[in-house]
Design a protein that fits this description.
The complex is a heterodimer of chains A (205) and B (623).
Chain A lengths: L19 H31 L9 H4 L2 H26 L3 H31 L8 H30 L9 H32 L1
Chain B lengths: L12 H7 L3 H29 L10 H36 L7 H19 L27 H29 L12 H33 L12 H35 L6 H14 L15 H13 L1 H15 L8 H24 L1 H7 L3 H31 L5 H27 L16 H31 L31 E2 L5 H8 L5 E2 L6 E3 L5 H17 L9 H21 L5 E3 L1 H11 L1
Antiparallel strand pairs in B: 1-2, 3-4
Helix pairs in contact in B: 2-3, 2-4, 2-15, 3-4, 3-5, 3-7, 3-13, 4-5, 4-17, 5-6, 5-17, 6-7, 6-8, 7-10, 7-11, 7-13, 8-10, 10-11, 11-13, 13-14, 14-15, 17-18
The chains are: A mainly alpha (205), B mainly alpha (623).
C-alpha cells in the first residue's frame, strides 16, 4: 500500500505527497481553497456592489493611505516567498532551514496583522464605524475576513512549529507544512486582489 | 443492526456511536437524523394542509402558518434531504470504489456532528419566541432586524453551522472518489452514483460557500447592525437575492443529482442490463453541474433586472433540459428489453422517470421569462418544485433505501408492505401536487395562510390536503415496515441479495469494519457482474492478505459540534434577555471548538492495525 514508504535511504523527493494520507491532504487542501475562493468572491462582489453606498459616512478616497498599504503588501508577499523557501528546504530534508523560514513567515504575518489592526483603528477614529454605511460594513467584512484568515494561519503555523520543534521532517508532518504553505499562498493571493480592488480602485477608480 | 462480528474493538454502544469514524456507522447516523427531520417537516406540512383544507379555516394563525412553511422548506432541504443523501453517499461510495474508508474519517464524523448541532440549533427556535417566518429564502427586508423576529437569527446561525458540516463532507467525498479508488477502478468505470456524488460535492464546494457568505452578511446585519441590506445607508436588498440564488439554484442540483445516481444504480440492477449510454450519462451530469451555476437569475425574473439578462438566463435555463433529457432516455433504454424485476426499489426507480419529466416540463414553462410573470409566487411554482423534490429526490432516496437496506442492516425490508407503501405514497403525492398546478394557474398565491370561498379553489385544496394525509399514511406504513422487518425479516448472509452489479455487493453482509479484507482488482464497469459472467463470481484480490490499518475513533468531532452549538446560541442571544452575557457564551463555545481542534492537531494519532489472524478469522466467520 502507499501508506508504507521505505525511508531507510532518506526521505523521498516529495515527502508531502509520498503517502496516501499526504496525497489526500494535498488534494483536500486544494478543494478547500476552491471553496474559499468562491466565498471570498461573494464578499468581493458585495464590496463592489456596495462601495459607492457611503451614505453620510466618509468615502474610500478620504481614508486610504497607499504607503501603509504598500508596506503591508510587501510584508505579506515576502512572507509568501519565505514559505516557499521553507518548502524548498523541506524537499531537501533541511529541517533547521524549514523551521527558520517558517518562523520568519510567522513574524512577517504577525507584523502584517498588527498593521491591519492599526489601520482599522485609524479609520475608526476618522469616523468610519462598522455600522456607518454599507461601504463601511462591506469594507470591514471583506478585509477583516482576510485578517481573520491570517490570524488562523498564524495560529496554525505556531502549533505546527511548536509541536514539531524536535521531530525532524517526517512523512507525517511534511504534508502538514505543505498544506499550510498552500493556505498561506492563498491568503497572499486574496490580499493581492484586495490591494487592487479595494485600495487602488478606492483611491484611483 | 451492524453485527458484533464486524468489530474488533469492544466499546459500550453509546460511546461507540459518539466516537465512531466508520463511514458505515456515520451513514446510519445520517439516516436516522435525516429521517427524524423528514418526519418532523412532513408533520408541519400536514398541519398547514389542514389549515388550507377549506376556505377561511382558523386551525392555525397566519403567524404560525408562516413559521410552519418556513421551517418545512428549510428542514426538508437542509436537514432532511441533504443528510439522507449523505447517508447513502457515506455508505455506498467507499464500498463502490473498493476503499476501506473515506479519505478523512475524522472530518467525516465532524461533518455529521456539525450538521446535527446546526439542525438542533435551528429547531430550538420554537422555544425562544417562535421559529423563523420569512420563508426558506429569507428575503430581506422581510428578514432584516426591522421586520423579522428572533427566529431568523436561529435560521442564520443554524444553517451556517450545518452548512459548514455539509461543506467539509463534500470536500471529503471529492478527495475520496479521486484518490481512494481500488486498482482498475478508473474514472470511466466509476458507478454512476459515485459520479453524481462527485459532481454534487463539487457543487457543494462552490455553492455552500456563497451561502456561508450570504448568511454571514445577514447575521452581521441583524446582530451587529451592519448595513448590507438596509437601503438607508447605501445597502441593497436585491444583493441578498443574488447571493441566495447563486447558492439556491445549484442546491436543487446538489439534491437531485444523487437521486439521478441512485436511479442509475437501481434501474440497471433490476433490469438485468448495463446502464444504457454510461458515457453520455457521465457527461450529462457534468454539463448539468456546470449549467446549474449559470441560471440563478431565473428565480428573479420579476425583480426587474432587465430584458437582456432575463433572456440570457431563460435560454440558459432551457438548455439544462437537453442533458436531463439524455438521462431520461438512457433510463428508458436501460429498461427497454431488460428482464425487469418489480421490487419496491424498482417501483420507485421506474416511477421516478415519468414523475421527474412532469417536473421538468413545468420547469421549462417557468423558464420562459415573459410568462413567468403570471406564474411567479403562485402554487404553480409550488407544484413544480415538489414534482422535482418529491417526485425526483424523495422517490430516488426511497429507491435507494429499499435497495441498500439489506447491505446496511443485514435484512431486507418487507416487499409486500413496501409495494403498498409505494402505491399509497405515489397516489398521495400526485393528489397533493397535481391540482396545485391548476390552483396556481387560476391565481392562488403561495405562502398565504387562507383563501376566500367561491373562487374555484375549494375542491382542489380539499383534494390536495387529502393527498397530504395519504402521504403521511404511507410514511406510517414505511415505519411499520421498518419495525416489522427488523423483528421478523430473515437475516441475510449472502453478499449479493439482489443479483446486482457494482462493487458494494462484493462485500460480506454485514460489512466488516475494514470493508474489503483484500483490496479488489476491478476489471470492468459493473465489476461484480463481470466476475459473475467471466470469472468465478468473486472479486480478484489486488493485494495479499495482510494486516489492515484502521483510523482510531474520536470524541473530538462530537465536542466540536457541541462547541459550535454553544457559540451559535451565543450569537443569537445578543437579542435575548439572558442572565449571562452573549460574549461569555460565545467564548465558551469558541474555546470548546478551537480547543478541540488544537487538541486534534497536537495529538499523534496514527490509528491502529488489525492483525492478519484477526482478519482471517473474521472473514471465516462472515462467509
Amino acid at each position: 500500500m502507499a501508506d508504507s514508504v521505505d525511508v531507510n535511504k532518506g526521505l523521498p523527493a516529495n515527502p508531502e505527497k509520498a503517502t496516501l494520507d499526504g496525497k489526500n491532504k494535498f488534494l483536500g487542501m486544494f478543494v478547500f481553497l476552491a471553496g474559499e475562493t468562491t466565498m471570498f468572491a461573494t464578499f468581493f462582489g458585495t464590496y463592489l456592489g456596495l462601495r459607492s453606498g457611503t451614505g453620510s459616512g466618509p468615502e474610500a478616497a478620504d481614508l486610504f493611505q497607499l504607503p501603509l498599504v504598500f508596506i503591508m503588501t510587501m510584508l505579506l508577499l515576502t512572507s509568501s516567498l519565505t514559505s516557499v523557501l521553507a518548502t524548498f528546504a523541506m524537499k531537501k530534508n533541511q529541517f533547521a532551514k524549514l523551521k527558520l523560514w517558517m518562523w520568519i513567515t510567522f513574524l512577517l504575518g504577525a507584523t502584517f496583522l498588527g498593521l491591519e489592526i492599526y489601520e482599522f483603528v485609524e479609520y475608526y477614529e476618522h469616523g468610519l464605524g462598522y455600522t456607518t454605511s454599507a461601504f463601511a460594513s462591506s469594507f470591514y467584512t471583506l478585509v477583516g475576513l482576510h485578517g481573520a484568515h491570517v490570524l488562523f494561519g498564524l495560529a496554525w503555523i505556531l502549533l505546527l512549529l511548536l509541536r514539531n520543534r524536535k521531530a525532524g521532517i517526517t512523512l507525517t508532518n511534511a504534508p502538514k507544512f505543505y498544506a499550510f504553505s498552500l493556505y498561506w499562498h492563498f491568503i497572499d493571493l486574496v490580499w493581492v486582489f484586495i490591494f487592487t480592488v479595494v485600495y487602488l480602485m478606492g483611491i484611483g477608480g | 443492526m451492524v453485527s458484533e462480528a464486524t468489530n474488533t474493538r469492544k466499546k459500550s454502544v453509546l460511546w461507540d456511536w459518539l466516537t465512531t469514524v466508520d463511514h458505515k456507522k456515520i451513514a446510519i447516523l445520517y439516516l436516522i437524523a435525516g429521517t427524524l427531520f423528514f418526519v418532523k417537516a412532513g408533520l408541519m406540512a400536514v398541519l398547514f394542509r389542514i389549515q388550507l383544507i377549506a376556505p377561511e379555516m382558523e386551525f392555525i394563525s397566519g403567524q404560525t402558518f408562516n413559521e410552519l412553511v418556513t421551517m418545512h422548506g428549510t428542514i426538508m432541504l437542509f436537514l432532511a434531504a441533504t443528510p439522507l443523501i449523505f447517508a447513502f453517499a457515506n455508505f455506498a461510495i467507499p464500498l463502490q470504489i473498493g476503499a476501506r474508508d473515506v479519505a478523512f474519517p475524522f472530518v467525516n464524523a465532524l461533518g455529521f456532528w456539525l450538521f446535527l448541532s446546526g439542525g438542533i440549533l435551528l429547531s430550538i427556535s420554537w422555544f425562544f419566541g417562535g421559529a423563523p417566518d420569512a420563508g426558506w429564502t429569507s428575503y430581506v427586508p422581510l428578514a432584516s432586524r426591522e421586520f423579522g423576529g428572533l427566529g431568523i437569527d436561529f435560521y442564520v446561525l443554524g444553517l451556517q453551522i450545518s452548512g459548514f458540516g455539509t461543506l467539509i463532507s463534500g470536500i471529503n467525498f471529492i478527495v475520496t472518489i479521486i484518490n481512494m479508488r481500488a486498482p482498475g477502478m478508473t474514472m470511466m468505470r466509476l458507478p454512476l452514483f459515485c459520479w453524481t456524488m462527485l459532481v454534487t460535492s463539487m457543487l457543494i464546494v462552490f455553492a455552500f460557500t456563497p451561502l456561508a457568505a450570504g448568511l454571514a452578511l445577514l447575521m452581521l446585519d441583524r446582530i451587529f447592525d451592519a448595513q448590507f441590506f438596509i437601503p438607508g445607508e447605501g445597502g441593497n436588498v436585491v444583493l441578498w437575492q443574488h447571493i441566495f440564488w447563486i447558492f439556491g439554484h445549484p442546491e436543487v442540483y446538489i439534491l437531485v443529482m444523487p437521486a439521478f445516481g441512485i436511479i442509475s444504480e437501481v434501474v440497471p440492477a433490476f433490469s438485468k442490463k448495463r446502464l444504457f449510454g454510461y458515457t453520455s450519462m457521465v457527461f450529462a451530469v457534468l454539463i448539468i453541474g456546470f449549467l446549474s451555476f449559470m441560471v440563478w437569475l431565473h428565480h428573479m425574473f420579476t425583480v426587474g433586472v432587465g430584458p437582456i439578462a432575463n433572456s440570457v438566463f431563460a435560454i440558459a435555463t432551457m438548455t439544462i433540459a437537453v442533458p436531463t433529457g439524455i438521462k431520461i432516455f438512457n433510463w428508458l433504454f436501460t429498461m427497454w428489453g431488460g428482464k425487469i424485476k418489480f421490487t419496491t426499489a424498482m417501483h420507485f426507480g421506474a416511477s421516478f422517470v415519468p414523475t421527474f419529466v412532469l417536473g421538468g416540463v413545468t420547469g421549462v414553462m417557468l423558464a420562459m421569462a415573459p410568462v413567468d410573470h403570471l406564474y411567479h409566487d403562485t402554487y404553480f411554482v409550488v407544484a413544480h418544485f415538489h414534482y422535482i423534490i418529491v417526485g425526483g429526490i424523495v422517490l430516488g432516496l426511497l429507491a435507494g433505501l429499499f435497495y441498500w437496506y439489506p447491505k446496511m442492516f443485514g435484512h431486507k425490508l418487507n416487499e409486500t408492505l413496501g409495494i403498498i407503501f409505494f402505491w399509497i405514497f405515489y397516489i398521495g403525492f400526485h393528489l397533493t401536487f397535481f391540482v396545485q398546478h391548476i390552483l396556481g394557474l387560476i391565481g392562488m398565491p403561495r405562502r398565504v395562510y387562507t383563501y376566500l370561498e367561491g373562487q374555484g379553489m375549494d375542491t382542489m385544496n380539499f383534494i390536495s390536503s387529502v393527498g397530504a394525509f395519504l402521504m403521511s399514511v404511507a410514511i406510517i406504513i414505511l415505519v411499520i415496515n421498518i419495525i416489522y422487518s427488523a423483528l421478523k425479516a430473515e437475516r441475510i448472509t449472502e453478499k449479493d441479495p439482489w443479483d446486482a452489479r457494482t462493487l458494494e455487493w462484493a462485500t460480506s453482509t454485514p460489512v466488516a469494519e475494514y470493508n474489503f479484507a483484500q483490496t479488489p482488482q476491478v476489471r470492468s464497469l459493473d465489476p461484480v457482474f463481470y466476475e459473475k459472467i467471466h470469472g468465478n463470481g468473486e472479486m480478484k484480490p489486488a493485494e495479499p492478505l495482510d494486516e489492515i490499518h484502521m483510523p482510531n475513533g474520536s470524541i473530538l468531532p462530537f465536542i466540536m459540534g457541541v462547541g459550535m452549538f454553544i457559540a451559535g446560541f451565543g450569537f443569537i442571544s445578543f437579542h435575548m434577555d439572558l442572565f449571562i452575557s452573549p460574549y461569555v457564551i460565545i467564548a465558551i463555545g469558541g474555546i470548546t471548538f478551537f480547543g478541540a481542534m488544537a487538541a486534534r492537531s497536537l495529538q499523534n494519532d496514527h490509528g491502529y492495525h488489525i492483525d492478519k489472524e484477526t482478519v482471517e478469522s473474521m472473514e471465516k466467520e462472515l462467509s
